[in-house]
Task: inverse folding
């Protein structure tokens, strides 16, 4: 039995076939049924061992994270996640590794109600490419180019935990919870769906707030002021990180996979209330300005000098 | 400028945006418009250097072939090819290589009217994963499980050329045409569309006729007799290969990317006439039997002993 058959076998046990999969794995193509009136949202991301996750990452977490980073892109469009394909390159056939990888992947797939509909395996240094597909009613997708002047800039959850975990990797007192923020990010699918008819623009925070928000500003032709004192931090983050040190992790650390959304000020309360239903916080961290560029202000309103470049892969 | 931006730049020059791409590369997801009443056909294939193509293959041809093998799967479903994503892992940033790769990829994309809608690049040993998407009217897709007893088993084009080219790689008199059969296969998209309402079952020949046809037989719960003397050969193939040697190349050599289809006998002439319009031959090579299993018969009707296993990747 080859690797992909093993993965499939594991999936078959855990994920019931969805009604929108007319034909699953086993023919030349899968056949999928998008709902009438909806358009297809498609994204693809490759994760390479040692570059996108630490080499010693548990296979369960690698499976989870490979899917999570792709679902996060669907979340940022306000799309309903539905299907994905998997291309897995492995240095060797290790059945235990594959089972654990498949378990992490299928746990998130089951939780997110997405179906594995195709894939391929190859021999080589460990890397995973997933293409995730979702659907969204025509015209309803959240894009990067819709931010409007005076919008509130908001983020879900807390920032900087993944970057902190990465920094603390070698320390023995790195907690399981903090490590999980790096290894098993939660794609904010429900939040994306809930904010779809409220938010003007959205992006997921994969490379760090500074770089990712800059994409929204560029696409929308606007600027933003971000109030550093408002950046949401977890209790663990506050415990480990001195305030002087927090900003670099929260603005330029990647891998948080929270959503950053721009919302009209009068809609903020409703947006926050919608996310509170499923225990996701929404924090206002700044506002969109007509003056272009991204400015970070300290508690006294003084601009903090900071190059607005997030982590960029493969330069 | 990173590698993917380079590829994108090259694509922008060559492929006009299609009407079914509502939002292309540059946001969290692409947004795509499937036609009303059609379902989505999705396939993904990884090509690894030295495994799926010779390491010395020209980058133009690598780009072409990476897309071709995926489009071939869409062809086998009778789908209209529309979109694809690209994940490219490269050992080094070589601009000339990337441009040539993009040129090969975009030449086939333009010819096949498919749009690049997303992608990612990473550093590592050369491998390419493409996910190709097409659409097909609900209920009209060609599957592997529809072969019926007494159907004619047919193949497009000629068989064995790619396997022969692979064998002759080191020989200086390997012709450009023969080499192209290995390096730049033609996905039979037009043939798949033309046979969609005639054929009962179809598969593309990626791993060799013996193995691929066995999948159709297994899925359909039938068997087949194949008459070896009828297997279509190119003039070059006949020139190089002794008849005693031909069978192994034609039945077990992979990479032909022709279609194998099962058609009611009375429909064969119409099917062949439809393909003749765009210069693709269709050859009847055998018939579907109620007795399961795959039998190859010589010109005297005597069974040829042959294990029905095509080339399998990564065992």
Result:
């Amino acid at each position: 039995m080859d690797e992909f058959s093993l993965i499939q076998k594991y999936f078959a046990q855990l994920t019931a076939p969805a009604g929108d999969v007319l034909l699953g794995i086993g023919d030349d193509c899968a056949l999928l049924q998008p709902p009438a009136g909806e358009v297809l949202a498609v994204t693809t991301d490759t994760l390479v061992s040692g570059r996108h996750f630490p080499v010693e990452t548990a296979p369960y977490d690698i499976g989870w994270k490979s899917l999570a980073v792709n679902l996060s892109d669907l979340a940022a469009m306000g799309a309903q996640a539905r299907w994905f394909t998997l291309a897995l390159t492995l240095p060797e056939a290790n059945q235990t590794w594959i089972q654990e990888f498949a378990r992490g992947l299928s746990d998130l797939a089951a939780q997110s109600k997405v179906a594995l509909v195709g894939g391929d395996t190859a021999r080589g240094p460990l890397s995973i490419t997933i293409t995730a597909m979702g659907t969204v009613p025509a015209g309803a997708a959240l894009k990067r180019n819709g931010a409007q002047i005076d919008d509130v800039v908001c983020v879900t959850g807390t920032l900087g935990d993944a970057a902190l975990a990465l920094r603390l990797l070698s320390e023995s007192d790195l907690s399981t919870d903090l490590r999980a923020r790096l290894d098993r990010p939660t794609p904010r699918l429900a939040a994306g769906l809930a904010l779809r008819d409220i938010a003007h623009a959205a992006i997921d925070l994969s490379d760090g707030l500074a770089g990712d928000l800059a994409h929204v500003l560029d696409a929308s032709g606007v600027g933003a002021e971000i109030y550093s004192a408002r950046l949401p931090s977890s209790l663990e983050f506050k415990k480990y990180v001195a305030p002087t040190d927090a900003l670099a992790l929260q603005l330029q650390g990647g891998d948080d996979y929270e959503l950053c959304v721009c919302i009209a000020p009068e809609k903020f309360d409703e947006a926050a209330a919608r996310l509170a239903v499923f225990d996701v916080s929404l924090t206002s961290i700044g506002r969109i300005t007509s003056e272009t560029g991204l400015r970070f202000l300290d508690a006294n309103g003084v601009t903090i000098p900071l190059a607005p470049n997030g982590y960029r892969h493969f330069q």
Notes: Chain B has two domains: 3-137, 152-299. Chain B touches chain A through 62 residues (CB under 8 Å).
